[in-house]
């Protein structure tokens, strides 16, 4: 397909603008990924502190606290699927949703799909979301989203609509492949917390079983905060990789257009030279005709 030089130059200008947009999106994704990673230590320190409090509270509880067994007759598995809210993430959502589909076992399964883009991909894979919410766009929103998910989960647990809860999310990594991890949230396993070595039990104002229940809820909240923050960082790293691939394609397109521009410019120069030479020969012939005798 032939283009005029002006058309090619207009396309070169458009591609330069697109390159600026791609570079800006890559920079924003990199900044958000770094911010998310920087907040993980604080979340994990909070989880460790709550874990120590659970160990202290276990000293006060004379019962042997074990994970609550799931009722085989009402085995409802809630899978929290953390996807992306915005686009330009490649196959990020597909990997997470496919992992959720493989996790489905016997019994009823209820999906909590986080992220509007993931909600669309889940519907394409035949997964019906029983509850959904937008994924965070900034690291400051992680706590609010984790609180909403925690409330929705405990509402189902208290009403007998859920017996197990698992969260699926991606984790940031240097490799190009997307790694999906799963983490069991409920039933809550108190046996994983070590009992502290102390002579005096801590003073509390709540019955031990109520204290343990509230601490368990807080620990689940911190686990969700960590999962959301990891997923947010992984989402932005996937966006960075997509922008790097887009920038490569932009550069290839720009090089091709510059080559076309040079060729068309050379053709125009050649045509002008030919036109000038033809005009000069015609004028010279007319002058010779006027000078020749009749």
TrEMBL record:
Sorted alphabetically, the keyword list is:
ATP synthesis, CF(1), Hydrogen ion transport, Ion transport, Membrane, Transport
A Gene Ontology cellular-component term: proton-transporting ATP synthase complex
Q: What is the species listed in this Swiss-Prot or TrEMBL entry?
A: Paraburkholderia fungorum
InterPro entries found in the cross-reference section: ATP_synth_F1_ATPase_gsu (IPR035968), ATP_synth_F1_gsu (IPR000131)
Major localization listed first in the record, in broad terms: membrane
What does the UniProt record say this protein does?
A: Produces ATP from ADP in the presence of a proton gradient across the membrane. The gamma chain is believed to be important in regulating ATPase activity and the flow of protons through the CF(0) complex.
| GO molecular function term, any single one | proton-transporting ATP synthase activity, rotational mechanism
Give the protein's recorded name.
ATP synthase family protein
Q: Where does the protein end up? A: Membrane
Traced from the root, the source organism's taxonomic lineage reads:
Bacteria, Pseudomonadati, Pseudomonadota, Betaproteobacteria, Burkholderiales
Q: Which family does it belong to?
A: Belongs to the ATPase gamma chain family.
Which Pfam family, just one, is annotated for this protein? ATP-synt
Q: How does it sit in the membrane?
A: Peripheral membrane protein
